[in-house]
Structures are given as structure tokens and as C-alpha cells.
Write a structure and sequence with these properties.
404 residues; alpha/beta; 9-stranded mixed beta sheet; 6-stranded parallel beta sheet; 13 helices; 32% helix; NAD(P)-bd_dom_sf
């Protein structure tokens, strides 16, 4: 490959990685030093595993005080209260929590079907909102919630936390410097070998605990797992999809679930770029993975690492299937070179930590989140287009009414 500004590709990856803290992360300032002396009082709506995890993160952010918890499932509420502290108020009706004038912001970590009504009510109650992905249960809800947020002055952030991870900032920089050449394809997967279920002591709580299994509450693997990769492609390309095809079903975990245990979709973006998005719940090979295919190199994103593989530009002549002079299929990938995006031995915060830090920062400074109503809206529409394509076995197009 050609050299860039007199550095070799390896030197570029190393040097630019070491400069990251002064480059990409300039957009993520030192949060605690920017906070006011007054504490931001936060309520948590939804205290399951994700909500409790976010509560633990918030407890470690300077200038934040969790003052209220809400959940309809008493064991979750009790467990969260033990973690946050006995002085916190507890509710089973989120609307009662929103009536508390002292609460400035809410974190909503409930099943997908509740995202739209809860976020809308919270915005209209003059609360700042951190909403777990995706933005809404369906496309009409996403359109409505975007309009509600646009009419408000409150901070609205959606939990597509990889937009805050330095690794993706580095990948975006590498793409902009043309190290991969012309990009034609993304290959995204989020695979698990798991039934994705939680134990239920009382059968009447089945749908309350395992809501991801049922279509009335959830969009399945595309909304709960692959949503992050769909949003990552949007972030890296600064584009929204034109159309999508998809196939899904239940072919392994035949346990009464309604949402898919596998789905495969292909999205088409402007300039002919295609992105395949796959989730399989019966095989975890390579787990979380995004591959970006360019005509000069391939970039592979793993959970917290990335590697670049240079394309071979030399073809060898020989005998193939008895045809003399045919082109041999020479090695098409170079050796893996790790993409450097942090200093050696540097321990970077988890993306969820960075995401919540930025939420609090935006409340105090009135900045706009990196994952906001507009970016999350595009990704949410794309998620539902993919599910609709699989459910109807038709090509789903980005419709004019989807464009703000």
C-alpha cells in the first residue's frame, strides 16, 4: 500500500493511535471536571440486569445522585434498592416517578415496547432522558418520538454506546484516510450459543422476565443484539440504508418463543455499499464481529480490538483445473496488523461508562449527545425495516415519510 505523509501503514496506525486522546476524544471532555457543584438527581425506570448495571455506573460518576427507582417486578426493585441504598424512593408506576419535580433526568431500561410511551411521557414531564436502544417498538412510534424530542429543549440520548468508544473513532479515521480503499461491503454478526432465557420461578412471570422471546414486547435479535452493529455502520458511513432484504425464523430453540432465533439481513446503502447483518443463537463462532471490505484492505472489528489485513495486488499464473496460464488464487489477505487506538497498557472505560458520562455532561453543559434523536432514529428505522423484510419476505425500502 502507498505511504501516507511519509509514514508506512504500520507507523500510521501506531502513531495515530497514540494521538487518539487529543484527536477523536476531544469530543468527550473530562466530564467530572465540567460538572456543577449541584448534583444531577436521576431516576431509574427499569431495574433488571441492564438497568441495575447502568445504576452502578451512575453511582460512580461525580455529581450524580440516584434518588428514585421504578419497576413493576418487585424482586428487581428490591435488589436494585439494596445496591443503590435504602434512602432511594421506589415506584411501580413510572408516571409517579415522573411527578417528582426534584428528579432532573431519567434512565429508561425497560423492554422495547415501553420505550416510546415512557420516553415521551418523560420528555413531556420536562426530564432529560437516557433511553436504552432501540428508540421505539415500531416505525410510527419512532417518527412520533423524534418529533416530541425535537420540540423539547431537554437532553435526549439513546444507548448506542459504541459511538463513544475510541475504537470506532479510530476506525472512522482510518476509513477517512482511505487505508481500506473503496469500501463495498460490511459483514456484521452478533452470534451466541444460548437460549437467551432467564429462569422463572413463577410461570405467570414468564413474559415479564423473558420478554425478548415475544413479539408483542420485542424485535428479537435484530433489535436487541444487531442494533449496535447497524448503528455502527451508520456512524462509520454517515449514511442511512436505501433498502433491505431479510430472512429469519425459529429453527433451533423450539421452546414456544415467537421472536427469531436467527436472522440474516442485507442492507443497501448509497454508492452501492451493502451490509449483511446476522444473528444466530445456536453458534457463537466469532461472536461479535464487523468486517469492512475495501479493495485495498479488510478491517475486522472485534469486541475491543480491530485488525487490518492488506489485500494482495499480485496474481500468479499457473495451471488451474488443467487450464495452463490461468490465474492462481493467491493469498488475498496480508498478515493481521492490530489497529492501535490507545496507548500501551491504557485501560479505557467501558463504552457504557463513557455513554453515561456524556449524558451527564450534556445535561450540565447543554451539549448534544453523539447518539441523539436523529442518529438513533435512523438506526431504529433500519432495525424495523430489517424485521419487516424478514416477516413479509419482501424488499423494504426507506420511504419518503421516514426522512425528517
Amino acid at each position: 500500500m502507498k505511504k501516507f505523509n511519509h509514514y508506512s501503514r504500520k507507523e500510521f496506525l501506531t502513531r495515530s493511535g497514540l494521538m487518539l486522546s487529543s484527536l477523536a476524544l476531544d469530543k468527550l471532555p473530562s466530564f467530572s471536571s465540567r460538572l456543577s457543584t449541584d448534583q444531577v438527581q436521576v431516576g431509574i425506570i427499569g431495574t433488571g440486569s441492564r438497568g441495575t448495571g447502568l445504576a452502578k455506573i451512575l453511582m460512580g460518576i461525580k455529581g450524580v445522585k440516584i434518588t428514585a427507582l421504578c419497576d413493576v417486578y418487585q424482586p428487581h426493585l428490591t435488589s436494585a434498592r439494596q445496591i443503590v441504598g435504602d434512602k432511594v424512593s421506589t415506584y411501580t408506576d413510572y408516571r409517579k416517578l415522573l411527578e417528582d419535580k426534584n428528579i432532573e433526568a431519567v434512565v429508561i431500561a425497560t423492554p422495547l415496547f415501553l420505550h416510546h410511551p415512557m420516553a415521551k411521557d418523560a420528555i413531556q414531564a420536562e426530564k432529560h432522558v437516557y433511553l436504552e436502544k432501540a428508540m421505539a417498538y415500531d416505525i410510527p412510534q419512532a417518527i412520533d418520538l423524534r418529533k416530541v424530542v425535537e420540540a423539547s429543549s431537554k437532553v435526549f440520548q439513546v444507548g448506542f454506546q459504541y459511538r463513544y468508544f475510541a475504537l470506532y473513532h479510530k476506525v472512522k479515521e482510518v476509513i477517512s484516510q482511505n487505508w481500506l480503499g473503496k469500501i463495498t461491503h460490511f459483514e456484521c454478526q452478533y452470534n451466541r450459543n444460548s437460549n437467551w432465557r432467564f429462569p422463572v420461578n413463577n410461570p405467570k412471570d414468564e413474559k415479564l422476565i423473558n420478554w425478548r422471546m415475544y413479539r408483542a414486547y420485542c424485535g428479537g435479535p435484530l433489535s436487541e443484539l444487531c442494533a449496535h452493529q447497524i448503528d455502527a455502520v451508520h456512524y462509520l458511513l454517515d449514511k442511512r440504508p436505501i433498502k433491505v432484504v431479510g430472512f429469519g425464523g425459529v429453527n433451533y430453540w423450539k421452546d414456544g418463543r415467537e421472536t427469531y432465533d436467527h436472522i440474516r439481513t442485507v442492507y443497501e446503502y448509497p454508492e452501492g455499499i451493502q451490509s449483511s447483518v446476522t444473528s444466530v443463537l445456536s453458534n457463537a463462532y466469532n461472536g461479535y464481529n464487523i468486517r469492512i471490505l475495501g479493495d485495498r484492505a479488510t478491517l475486522e472489528i472485534q469486541r475491543d480490538k480491530a485488525f487490518i489485513y492488506a489485500e494482495s495486488t499480485k496474481n500468479q499464473q499457473g495451471t488451474v483445473d488443467g487450464v495452463t496460464g490461468a490465474t492462481l488464487l493467491a493469498r488475498t489477505q496480508g498478515e493481521a496488523e492490530e489497529l492501535i487506538f490507545k496507548e500501551k497498557n491504557e485501560q479505557l472505560p467501558d463504552p457504557s461508562v463513557l455513554s453515561l458520562q456524556h449524558f451527564i455532561h450534556c445535561i450540565v453543559t447543554n451539549d448534544k449527545p453523539l447518539s441523539n434523536a436523529h442518529t438513533a432514529y435512523d438506526s431504529t428505522i433500519a432495525i424495523h425495516m430489517g424485521n419487516l423484510a424478514a416477516e413479509t419476505e419482501t424488499v423494504q425500502h426507506w420511504k419518503p415519510e421516514y426522512t425528517p
